[in-house]
Write a structure and sequence with these properties.
Shape: flat
Number of strands: 6
Radius of gyration: 39 Å
Order of helices and strands: HHEEEEEEH
Number of helices: 3
Largest sheet: 2 strands, antiparallel
Strand order of the largest sheet: 1-6
Mean pLDDT: 77
Helix content: 40-55%
Oligomer: single chain
Length: 189
């Protein structure tokens, strides 16, 4: 009996330790720290990004509608209709960028600070101004189109009101004619 217990405990110990997987330690980036110490600048305290979507892709969740069903493990249990949510993809790092996204990586070209570069700033402002002018033209054309559509709708509304008034008058005249005919019919009987 003791041999059986010892054998079972040792097999259980082997299974438990066999499934254990240690994660390797993260490598320390000594060169990066040393380069900041050698330069006259300090390491960044936060990631200089405009939006987390530039760096990280969110998880993707899918919802499944489940109708009524009997629990397969216990036929005495009935599950009502409900929604099951499943994580399809875990969040991941964005490795590739597209043309419209900009990932700011900080000071990499020179030892000097690039907070203010007039040439780059002028180019960026000129591009942004051009983009805003295009957007303004499109919005102006849409606004003009909406104004024209509103004017046409007002004209159509006035025409409909006039037509409605004409039909109301014609209906009143028809009502008078019917009343006269009814009086003649009643007077003959």
């Amino acid at each position: 009996m003791k041999i059986l217990i010892v054998t079972l405990l040792s097999l259980t110990g082997l299974f438990v330790t066999g499934c254990y997987q240690a994660h390797p330690p993260y490598p320390r980036l000594e060169s990066t720290v040393a380069s900041y110490e050698n330069e006259l600048c300090t390491p960044p305290q936060s990631i200089p990004i405009n939006n987390e979507a530039n760096v990280r892709l969110p998880e993707r969740i899918k919802a499944y509608a489940v109708n009524r069903y009997i629990d397969p493990a216990n036929p005495r249990i009935l599950h009502e209709r409900h929604v099951v949510y499943r994580i399809e993809e875990d969040p991941t790092w964005r490795l590739a960028t597209d043309e419209n996204r900009q990932i700011l990586i900080g000071n990499t070209l020179t030892n000097g600070k690039l907070n203010y570069n007039p040439v780059l700033m002028e180019k960026e402002l000129a591009l942004e101004l051009q983009r805003q002018r295009i957007i303004n033209e499109v919005l102006q054309s849409h606004s003009d189109m909406l104004i024209d559509t509103g004017a046409n709708l007002n004209k159509d509304h006035e025409i409909m009101l006039e037509r409605s008034e004409q039909l109301r008058k014609a209906l009143e005249e028809q009502g008078k004619i019917i009343a006269e005919m009814k009086e003649r019919f009643d007077s003959k009987n």
